[in-house]
Batch of 3 targets.
Target 1
Amino acid sequence: VLVCPFATRSEAFEGRHNLIPDRVQLNVRWSDLEGLTPRGEWTYEYGRPSTGYGVTSAGGYVYVAAFTGGLKIFQETSGKATPISYLPTAGNAYDVVVSGSYAYVAANTNGVLVVDISNAASPSLIHSVPLSGGTRRLALDGTTLWAIDFNGVVSSIDITSPAAAAVMDTIDVGTFGRDITIAGDIIYVAADSAGVVAVSGANPSNLTLMPTAGFVVPSETNDADSVDHDGSYLYVGDHGLGLLIVDVSTPTAPELAGRSAESFHSEIEAHGGFVYARSTGDIDVYQPTGLSTSAPPTINPLTTVDIDGGDTPQRLTIAGGTLYAVGVNYGFSSLSLAVPSAPSLVSYFNFNESIIGSHLHGSLLYVAIANSTYNRGGEIKIFDLANPDLPTQVGSLTTAETPYSFDAEGSTLYVGCNGELLVVDVSNPATPSLLGTYGGLFYQGYGVEAQGTTVFVASSGHGLRVVDASNPSAPTLLDFYDVSGIAEDVATYGDYVYVGMRSGSTTGWIDVINASDPSNLTLETTLSIPETASSIHVAEEQLFVSYDDGFSLYDLSVTPEDPGFVQSTVLSHIDPLLTYHYGHLFVADGLSGLKVFQDPAFATPELTNTDAVSTREIALDGNLAVVIDGSSDVGFRVYTTD
């Protein structure tokens, strides 16, 4: 039998800001203290940091080969790219093409993967075609799939029956293979220092080099990275020479017909007399005119388009009148070619999104997902953990600003965002709705604690804000307490508010504020702590404070206005986050994983168990514990009690 407070903070403080939680007796045992094996897991694979290497569109869906991020499938509606599904790949996904109900993925050393996409929401791997080298690029021509690997081997693959796709023939072009395109019966390969090599594909079962044994354009070419074909011209993206335009009206006698003034265009796509070329952070648009093999002109771009966020495009693909650009770092953009000389942004999706906050209330988990690169707002995802073996997303709400922290009171969720506090109705988790916004936080709402309709917010450089949300459609400021540092987190006990503070990277303290009248805050005292405050938590008449290399305990039972120091514990990794439940202290200790301490009020807390997974944050309620994955910030693990 353990003595513990009410299961949830919201139950303890329902309706009044100065109610001290009673104690209840519960018979409970953490089964996972003996093994700490998670029951269920969820990973936000759409946002797993990864590089887009290939992209295509078909049937209203966008398919992205996202390197270590596997195959990602999106649907575009009303100018928004929405993730539909994700399929991990055995090898790094470098390219993807689609034919009918099947997607073909270039999976490096795992050859070509054949994926059934008849149900885009649930793609399934049905077959793989092993190839000798690392498969890099793909091109489709009817029932023949062409592949080029890093070693310069071209493969022709019969996909008449996708589930039994097989290699018909291969040919080695003798150098590094970077890209591939089809022009009738000729396969052109961007072959790095060998320029562009031409292969006859008239008989896919008997591949041969063209009579000229390929060609080099021009002699100083050293970095042919990309190649595309449009009409009688071949367009070559060269890392050192820019865009090269080659007249291939006589395939056995190709001639240079023009070139760009820009010297860096390692990725190009040609369509309808226009050429779209990768530049650093931009796409240059060309409309080549006056081409001549006798006096090849130097041409300049008509315009330059900045893809969203200034990301550098890794791969360009045109499908259905839309130009798709996958980025080196952050995601993909789709641009309308309704005016081909001036592509306009339709939608953007950022891969570099992550979980930066969470809150567990009953069996509902609220997760803050943010764009960690360009602060383009974020999303609140709601999961039902009633079946801990299978976390299920039941709802979501897009936020204009980045969300950081939560607290729930009944059917109302309070969300601390960048510059604002949101009041959200979650009475129906499937359709959360925004009730109102308080926009006076100025900085990030790093910590939120609600007592009834009185909401305390740790607002970064603007200290503590107290918001009255009794009228949820028009929250108002009751009072504020300015601070000399950065407010990182907030917790309450009775009439007192505890604010975790930092100044710089090494100095931290706790401000203890009297909030018996929340419209007239007064400072009671300041507690020194060894390092900057990472998180604070109140339970069992104790104040738990974590900082860069450990945590400290303070006694609130006698003088909560001036907590008495109990003890400190040193941990091995920085910024541990913690919470207390059922007589145990749960610590998300960075790279060293989840740690559980029993009887933490004792002079020497007993470490009872660990789970050696990287952790970023932990949330508990009832018989559930949720740990945010610290290795990538895109997933969580669920633990349960007996």
Target 2
Amino acid sequence: MAPGKRRIINPVTRLSLQPLLILSFVVPIVSTVGLTGYLSFRNGQQAVNELATQLVDKLGNRIESYLTSRLSTAHTINQLNLNAVQKGQIDLQNHSQLHQHFWQQQLAFNTVSGLYYASEQGELVALERSPWGFMSSVKARGGDSQLAQLTMSNGQGQPYTLNVPIASFDPRQLPWYQTARQSGKPAWGAVYFHRDDGDAALPLVMPLRNPEGRLQGFFMAEFRLKDLNQYLNDLNVSPSGQAFILERSGNLVAASSLEKPYQKVSGREDPIRLLGTESIHPLIQTTTRHLFDRFKDLQVRKPQQFVWTEQNQRHFVHVTPYRNELGLDWLVVIVVPEPDFMAQINQNTVMTIGLCVFATLIAMGVGVLTARWLVNPLMRLNRAAEEIAQGNFDQPVYLQRSDEVGDLAISFNEMLTQLKTLRDSLESQVAERTAALAETNRRLGEEINEREQIELALRESEASYRAILEDQTELILRCRVNGTITFANDAFCEYFALPFHEVIGKSYAPVVYEEDRERVALALTGISLSHPVVTLENRVHTPSGVRWTQWNNRGFFNHEGTLIEFQCVGRDVDDRKRAEEALQQSEARMKDILNTAVAAIAYFRVYPDFSREYLYFSEGQTAIFGLTPQELLEDISLWRERVHPEDLVNVLDPVNERVCATGTTTIEYRYHHKDGSLRWISDHLTS
């Protein structure tokens, strides 16, 4: 290895073969078992989510069906009683008959806990299930009566009187009666409490009116909430799950925990309603708080499902609004903790971890034994190879194995024999190659000396060429196709007053006058192999102002014919250009003078044979001769044809002779004008 260089080694290759073999057993097994356990756990969680969703949804449907069935029975009974009165089947003044009718309905519909009729006169007929398993009837006179009568019913529904005095009361003052009188239509009343047994009940009241529409009284069917509690408890939601019903106000209606939906307060005769957040069951308390947090004022319009988490435990919640046309507006809530479903999954997870550990130990044991069986012979081969690297070729390795490792040892020994032979052969070859190398080095030295002399001559030639360029007074410039300057002589730098280092590597464009840049660029793009040289004149910016320059631009091409560089040789032609512009302006002014003069002015050249070449006619020709300057320039015979024949011989050749001899002459002749008139013309000629 060369000094100062370090070999980069992959960290994996620095590990011993034995731990790598062990890892090759352990890692796949542990990975497979661990991944299987993880996927099983995740699939279990997903199954739990689906199962919980299906369970709470199914339980919600069952509770809703139960409520619809039980609560619709109360409305059916009230409607039957109203129909019986309207058809005359019941005489409301015959209390025994009404009592017997209520008895039959209790036998037919055991889902209600009491049937009542209260009149506007303060009478009350009631048949309700008592705590002792039989039914009792209370008949009372309201108003001024001081005593009420308690009547019990025998097994056939026949009333018999017990001498049990009770406090006088007016049924018209009962809360459900007051609420029904205000609404005036069938409706469920507010939950109230029986003072005798403490049960909470839900009343359904229907008004009774006479044919004239005047209120006579109310039928009321009562539904005890303890029956609803028992139904929710019998559902067995889950080992620790709960089902409960809330009013929109948050008051508890019923719960599977069998708790009563009210609490007694010392100093008050009537208990007060219990909020869901005040439940004795922590799961109902917490779930109700989450409902208030998630839904403002418990305004749930359609079935909802959500999950809340506490102490790293998830709880699945299903909320279903329950409404009917008689005024009930409840929320049926079912909450199931995730651990109720995850017990078996957690057990499987623990078992998977145990299997993973067991498999790891087995794999490590098998890996150690396999590694030793494979590595020990390889270590012997490695030690022998190290000895060979030190120059000791007497290190044969003998293994009593017939597998691949044994074959490797045989090959190793054969290689050792060949290495001995090659070493002897190489030593002789090295001596020969050393002599050949010395001869080659000598020749290379001679070639290097020759090349150095050639390079020296090239540098001298280059210096001479550069000196010639620098001494030129013309502006010399070389640039790439993109306009970047690669060389500029001193004349160029002095002309534009630019230092050499500010010119090289920059574009030539800034020194070109703005209006001429596009024309210059277009001319350079026209350079090709067939037209390698382009000459043009353009203006440039100099320290003394804008000046005219002339450039001879030559293109240089590579062996493929691609343009690679320009050489531009320029000179200052500003004085000539300005003289030309002045001459053009003078000629223009003279032409304006001649064109505006009231005379026919012509300019022509006379040759030795007295032939004429007409070069110019003024605009006055049209007025005097009737011919335009253009017509005369194209065909002078048009003028000759109109000169009077008698005067024509004195107009041409004699005139030429006199002008050439004297320098000036005047002639007069007749001329037929284009308008048909004959005019005398006087010509003054000057040479």
Target 3
Amino acid sequence: MKVNDYMKKLYQDMQLRGYTEHTQEVYGRVVGKFLNFSGKSIEVLNEHDVRNYVLHLMNSDLSKSSINTYQAAVRFFFGVTLNRSMNYLQMPRLNEDQTLPEILSREEMVRLLERCENSKHRAMFSLAYGSGLRVSEICALRIQDIDSKQMRIFIRGSKGNKDRYTILSRQCLVFLRDYWRNFRPNHPDGLLFPGSNNISHITDKAINQALKKWLTAAGISKNISMHSLRHGFATHLLEQTLSVPLTALVTMGVEIQDIFAAHITSYMESHPLNLVQRKAVQNIVDCRTAALGAHIDTCDNCGYTKISYNSCRNRHCPKCQTVAKEKWIDKQRQHLLDIPYFHVVFTVPSELNPAFLSHQNALYSLLFQAASETILELCADRKYLGAMPGITAVLHTWGQNLHFHPHIHMIVTGGGLTREGKWRNSKKHFFLPVRVLSAKFRGKFLALLKAQFPTLNPSLLDHCYRQKWVVYCKPPFDSAGKVISYLGRYTHRVAISNDRLLSLKDGKVTFRWRDYAHKNQMKLMTLDAEEFIRRFLLHILPSGFRKIRHYGLFASRDKGKRLALCRRLTNSSQPAPMLSVTAL
């Protein structure tokens, strides 16, 4: 028989025994290497040749587990395909080192996901770490396998050709929707992660290469693979189970609604609420319960019906922001230009917090006015840009620990329209000097504050004038698509989302928070339920107050004409038609 005939018989023997395609490929490759190493015809091969090959492997860089795999392949070839007896005692299986796998810490995992700018890669990493999927399972995942209703993922034909379900965390679902919105995969077989040719699925090699790239970008030097992220899922789940209920870990446990339902009555006995706070609290407690009624969904094809409770749609309810956010982002996509964008943040000293809480409507508006005028006036100066940029501004009033911390997030175009109707780009990696921004913003805000509140304590104003105000500008985005995904993180946020809540026990609430003062460390904080409610209610906005505003090129007046001109001057592509938000 020729070598090809023996190899054909090898594959047939493996198929008859139900070996997977991956195992067949590995065994075939190993046997080919063995035959090349021996340099003999198959008819005269014996166990001494196998022994010499194993000794050769032990002197190579292969791990013990890989050498054992090579041995198993050659043994199968001798014992089954060639039907020859061997003294297996002469070639014992190597004892593999029982070392713990190297994994990322929680902080490193957060850093990796935050640094990863590709929403497709971020979604795949989160599936391995957040749901424990193998890289081969991620490659074969289909769109219909994601069940966002039951918050679970269906894994078909996994190891051992078995099907199973695994958990789907809320954060992982956010990353998946972000990926869907940016890429919208359209594979004929419904693959969630098709390859670059859109014919087959993405390969495990491509995913691991992407992981190495983003690990380097995040400054992580550990030898980490996609399987390491899966180990991290199991390790961190086990560690947290010691102190946190498993239901909280899979984000199917405590919610803001539960905290309010259990403790708002006792809180209101000693803390009076205003009308807007009362409405928000009542809506959150009633959201998706029988109190708001229900509706019936019917399938047009099979007639299956499902009864669902109605949502409250209050903008402070963490359950009701996803659809509103997706619709808003899809609408803003129509206004994006193919240019760099900068992220600028304006903050005020904490000494002004009492004034903000006493005059929320007026001071939040002053904050918007001072921040927007600072950007527009500096950009109008030819020393910096000499053009009018586009600005989208979002108000946040909280920090990670729920303390009151009013600040403005701005997404600003990296360029603008001049008075002559021409486009002028800003510097590629530099927008405006931070010190100039801070000084001008401080002077403008305090001048506006003094004019509107002339009786304000002069010593407070003097103290604020002497302070350095924090204004910072983050590096520009590479593409308009990344601006969209980034905007989604800020526009429809509430003070704290349900996925950060870990437990409600004995009148105390435990949640995760990131300590920016200590290198973004992820920590746990436990508060009395009433203190948690007090902090949450600080961030209920006045009725009718617009927390998202547009300026410059994005201002409402003549917006369509300006953007059409800017799109032509910057060679930006025409926006895609708006789509209904039904993916995943």
